[in-house]
UDP-3-O-acylglucosamine N-acyltransferase
Amino acid sequence: MQKVTLKELGQLLNATIKGDATLEISSVATLEDAVQGQLSFLANGKYRAQLEASQASAVLLSEKEAEFYQGNALIVADPYVGFARVAQLLDTTPKQALGIHPSAHIDPSAIIGEGVAIGANAVIEAGVILGENVQVGPGCVIGQDTIIGSGSRLWANVTIYHDVHLGQDCLVQSGTVIGSDGFGYANDRGNWIKIPQTGGVRIGNHVEIGACTSIDRGALSHTEIHDGVIIDNQIQIAHNVIIGQNSAIAGGTVIAGSSTIGKYCIIGGDCAISGHLSIADGVHVSGGTNVTSVIRDKGVYSSATIAMENKLWRRNTVRFRQLDELFSRVKQLEISAKGDE
């Protein structure tokens, strides 16, 4: 088990050390669950009451909160960011694969970089290029002419179709499918005619994609996921969607075809974004929101109704259906009032 001293963590985080700098830390935990040898953090003042009772050997604190704690501490500008960096340093997650398993099928034309690991029963098809230190978990399938950048990692049973480019230092969780056909059909007098999806998928560097997410290939041009994007579990990204740099999308969201999401956007869980629209940089869409039109300006956007008692919800639903009639009546009253002036 790796151990680091408070002094070493202080150098990593550019933190002010309060207490014993030689103290060794082996892992991280919450204030409530921490034991000796662990580092915790306080990022929200409402948990301040847990400080004194915590058994953590040291705590990450902001300067504002440090006055309320007499124990060992690392004082940083943002304790939650500090926690994330320490958690990375002490991460014990196993590698997705070790070496190249004898049951893996690798086409002779594939180019395999130095240090690549490929798990049991994985399939690497013709023309694939795997950069240095790529990890491919058991049961993964990587289709023809796909390129995976150095340091990227695929957990078990990821399927990547043909002509997909995945950048460097990406992480793809189990069950995800990248490059499947987009939902492209023409209707000929009631009969559906499939439109071949001949574009690819282009994914930048440092992108993370959650479990069981689907990213469709483009119809003609490519679907694009830019650098630093984080995508949660069970998300549908349709053909020709473009997601800008460092945007984040929470679980259960669906994005219809040919929509563009700007840079540094945050899309909450269970959102539905209609096709052929754009969302500006820096937009925050609350969970459960239906986006049906262009968003041109940075800001927070919401549309979901709050939970309420069923009887009240039923009455309000009836009132909602009467809005058009009510609007017409108000308009008529306004016209009558002007006539009486």
Remarks:
- Residues 310 and 316 are 10 Å apart (CA to CA).
